[in-house]
Fold these 2 entries.
Entry 1:
Amino acid sequence: MDLGNASSSSSGGGGGGGGGSGSVEVQLIYSITMPLSSTIILTNLLIILAIGCNRRLHTTPNYFFLSLLVADLGMGVALPFIPWMGLSRPLSFGACLMVHVLPNFLFLAFLFNLVMVHYERYLSIVSPLRHRSFWVHRRFPLVLLALWLPPLLFALLPAFGWNNRRGGRARSGCCRPGAAQFGGGATGHVEGGATAGASTEPNCSLSAAAGSGSGERCCTYRHVFPNAFIYLEVYGILVPAILSIAMMTGRVLWITHGQLKDIRRLQLSVTGRGRGGRQLGVDLRYARCVAAVSLTFLACWVPYIIYTHVGMAFLLRPGAEGNPTAHIVLSCAGVGGMAAVPLVLGLANREYTDPVRKFVHKLHNRWRQRRRWDAESIAL
């Protein structure tokens, strides 16, 4: 979930999208999110096509990974909209629900699928001879349904009534028509009772005419998600999921380390030598594996963990004000890094990348051959 709670550092007199700092922040959002989103979408599509076109890859583990790629594709589509969840925008409550519930559902579905992919691979390492007889393989259609249905139901709880629509101060101010402001404080209000850049009219109507000057009520994530909902999602779903992924990854590395020790003892008993070139090569591959896993965690998960803790810190300090630029950068880096985890897993598997590599190699050879023919025809 986006926990953005940044406050506008500019004075509240300017409208949204004008020549003030708001337009700079909007440009910053698009300049960061559009390249990230395009990269995530295109890479996921390539890996999905590689799995779909290779019948040898139509197995249960790859179906789980394919479900993860579809969820990650949705994250790539939703990425440009996530920084806007910390903005105050003039929207009706139904539209406000949609622009917050849909990205939250895609995020939860992505998280559930990511945990399942790690769990399935963990089982294949812990019990390589029996893992295909476990319930995740025997009931994989039900497992796939469980990866998407509970996130959808949980994300829809605000639409079922668990929201701040009638939360007193939650929607007591009105946005100017066309305005988009960074909401400050716990409820997007300053001490005077109105949002910076918003109208001071306390009882503006959602159905006001477009030219009436009152506009629509302000919409931020705090109007949709109560604090209890945010706490439940962060500490009941997000934190346990990240901890389980870290524990399963650490356990797999520990098992691999034990297997390498067994290989060393076997080599010692067979060759009678303590160290050889082959053993050194195995040790180097294991070291590279540990380094790759550690760097992936640092690059993909640490920014999101920092972003989440910053958001929770603002949630616990209602009067705090934040930097909108820092909020945009943290949200884009955190969500973008997390969405890159399946891409790292997919690109590290040669079964997924070989079809794409062969296709690119074929196109390159045809291009070089065409250039050679053109050069020969010009020479003649």
Entry 2:
Amino acid sequence: MYAIERDPELKQQQDKGSESLEEGASSATMCPEKSSESLEECGSFDSMLCPADMSARSRKAYLQHMMDELPRPVHNRILAMKHSQMEQIKISEQFYREVYELEKRYYLQCAELFDSRRDVVDGSVEPEPMEPSWSEQHDDLVAELQASKEFHQLTELMPKMPANAVGVPRFWLSIFRNVSLLSDMVQHHDEPLLECLMDVRISYEPESYTLKFLFRPNSYLDDCSLMLTKKYLLQHQADQEYPFMFEGPEIVSCEGCHIHWRDDSNLTMQKVGSGYCVENAIQRESFFNFFSPPQPQDLSLADEKTKMLLGNDFEVGFLLRTQIVPKAVLFYTGDLVDSTNEGLSDSDSSETSDTDADTDTTAPAPTHTPEQLSD
């Protein structure tokens, strides 16, 4: 039996007149001499360990044991409510299917606007001079940060854009660098090619969606690979083994594409050796590994590393579809920011957490998390 684990995020252990549970502890240890007596005889909840203080795994074991100990009539009433919950899940499945279709419909209505965004980014269209039609809100905390010495040191590293720049240089690369989850994927050697990224779009299918990355001609990609794709397959039904975990369509697998690199330009490989010897190539970290995800035959049997890679990949795919592609310019300007790395330093983190929380756009992805993948 698993030991009952305390939640590591608890800052203080509550003093409720009960000792910590030891290895192999069960709910009987809450009141060892009166485990068969009623709750009233054993004592109030204040004298017992609160399940919320346990880790998720221990809480699950504790509550399932509680279910096993319920009187038969009460147990049957709980089962009746869980059957009703299953009916609610069936209704939710239809709800999320219709939501997905609505997302597709309204995305298509925005297609012309996305075309306009692409044309402005690549410089083929020059917009007329204009003023904002919205109110720009002043943020005192942002202004205070901008006035700090540390902030000025950071801005010295900011790349300067020439006055005669065409379009919006480094638009998508800047967005990827502005979002923690995406920036972790981008290596320094990826940047010259990502500067050539003109557009990222989505195509919807009934049981999947595809991200399309369009590049201008460059010295890295063969002309037949200027459109790179990443397809995500969805499951709209609740998992039969874990039906109560259903919170909408889940990403269950993904498919990349083959990249045709120009000679000696493969950014995912690094050559070793020199001279006249035959050079060997070894794989290295690169954003473009995103288009070659692992493909386990049976996800439940995959190793932990593969599960973690796919869990992260699914999260990236969801973020790109729901946030980055439809709201790209807002991530470029900082109107939307994620709060993974809050503040400029540890001392700033506590001050900025409340402000960042207001603009946190990292919604929970309807995917299998690494924990779920391992079940």
